[in-house]
Amino acid sequence: MSVRTALIYSHKFDDFSYGESHPFKVQRFRLAYELIKAYSLDNLENSVISESGRISDEDILSFHDSKYIDRMKEFSASPAPRADFLYGLGDAENPVFPGFYDWACLGTAGTFEATRLVAEEGYSAAFNPAGGYHHAHRSKASGFSYLNDAVIAINSLLAKGKRVVYLDIDAHHGDGVQEAFFETDQVLVISMHESGIYFFPGTGFDNELGVGRGFGYTVNLPLIAHTDDPIYMKAFDEVVYPLISAYDPDIIFTQLGADTFRTDPLTRLEITTHSYSYILRKIKALRIPWVGVGGGGYDLINTARAWTIAWGIMNGVDLPVKLPESFVESIAAMGYPNTMLFDAMHWAEESDRNLALDAVEKSIETIRKEVFPLIIGSNHY
Ligand SMILES: [Zn+2]
Fold first, then answer.
1. Per-residue pLDDT tens for 32-42?
2. What distances in angstroms separate CA 106 from CA 44, 64, 227, one per listed residue?
3. Ligand 1 centroid to 255 CA: how many Å?
4. N or C end of the chain: smaller count of CB under 10 Å?
């Protein structure tokens, strides 16, 4: 397999804003790119930095409804404030800001290009941090997501007869992606996320398993508040990893949201870079052609650290534990005290983690009973 890799980055990201008070900050991409550069990961041998490119209406319409797309184009071109709640457009969560449709296309084009490089050009890995809008529905914006870049890109793989694993480690359930592939066995959709009992988007329970031919090809690991590094790695090792290796896809597509981290302002999991990087190293070791996209992450330094770690692992580069001096200085000026790239493994308080452990063990049991016989076979676990 080729060892070529590609990182998608565009200076155009800085031209857009969800608004001053919105938690989604586009600066996160520049910050991640600056950390990547500070580690000299922008000029590796056999690696390219690539622009987003363009995405055609035809590809977008492989998933989205044309009336929804028309409404976004109309609102995006108009300077007047507009809203259409039927399509989830113009509320506090999914604001209509100037050029927001171009913004959505830019991220989607990046994911599409990353996927094309892996599927058609023989790249071993390609990463678009400015992707991973997993909440976008067929005809509705949701959870800061307007276009579902993952579904659009994976549809292009399915059209070529490829089998795909979609692994989503964002703190939120990848509901839009699950919906798109709920009835097919060509995509094994696995999501590890904070439980929907009390948390957006309110889906992703372990009894959501797909329907028809797709039964058993949707796998959800809902995690309750205070799930920590050891519990997260246990869930990955006991369910996710064996399923991915048994399914043995042509391509693995990962949504690498960094809002699971214990300092994230929107979520209550207690994950650190320790288990995040553990999971990515195991994905890398599978040697399956790999497409990565970003996702959530509302503590900006966490997104920068997480996506730098991901890019390092895709390239087989071991990074020093300490952040580069120049980067520490520049973020200190922004009020961030961080000095380390990798965190020590974190355990939650005992009473909290006992509850989180009980919950994950129940989900592991359900998945082993319902899904393992279909994907792994009855004799191998
Ligand atoms: Zn999220």
1. 999 999 999 99
2. 25, 16, 34
3. 10
4. N
Residue in this structure with the two tokens 């031919």, named with its chain if needed: 213
C-alpha–C-alpha distance, residues 132 and 218, integer Å: 18
* Closest listed residue to residue 61, CA positions, set 181, 183, 147: 147
DSSP state of 318: P
d(CA 314, CA 336): 27
Question: What distance, in Å, lies between the first and last C-alpha atoms of the chain?
Answer: 30
Q: How far is CA 330 from CA 31, 310, 321, 326, in A?
A: 10, 22, 18, 6
Predicted TM-score (pTM) of the model is 0.97
Rg of the chain, C-alpha, whole Å: 19
Distance, in Å, from the CA atom of 167 to the CA atom of 310, rounded to the nearest integer, reads 14
What's the rounded Cα separation, in Å, for the pair 231 and 300? 25
Give Cα 21 distance to the centre of its chain. 23
What confidence tens digit (pLDDT) does each residue in 264-317 have?
Answer: 999 999 999 999 999 999 999 999 999 999 999 999 999 999 999 999 999 999
Cβ atoms of residues 189 and 178 within 8 Å: yes
Size of the chain, expressed as the number of residues it contains: 381
From the list 11, 22, 64, 135, the catalytic residue is: 135
What is the whole-number distance in angstroms between the Cα of residue 224 and the centre of ligand 1? 15
87, 46 contact by CB (below 8 A): no
Q: 145 C-alpha to center of ligand 1: Å?
A: 10
What's the token pair of residue 314? 């895709």
Q: What is the 3-state secondary structure (H, E, C) of 347-359?
A: CCCHHHHHHHHHH
Residues 6+ apart with CB under 8 A from 67: 139
pLDDT digits (tens, 9 = 90+) for 161-178: 999 999 999 999 999 999
Q: Which residues contact 267 (CB under 8 A, 6 or more apart)?
A: 171, 172, 194, 199, 259, 260, 296
Residue 142 gets which letter from DSSP?
B
Our answer to whether residue 137 is catalytic in this structure is no
Residue 245 CA to its chain's centroid (Å): 20
Distance of alpha carbon 240 from alpha carbon 248, whole angstroms: 12
- Cα of 258 vs centre of ligand 1, distance in Å, is 8
Which residue has 């990848």 as its token pair? Answer: 174
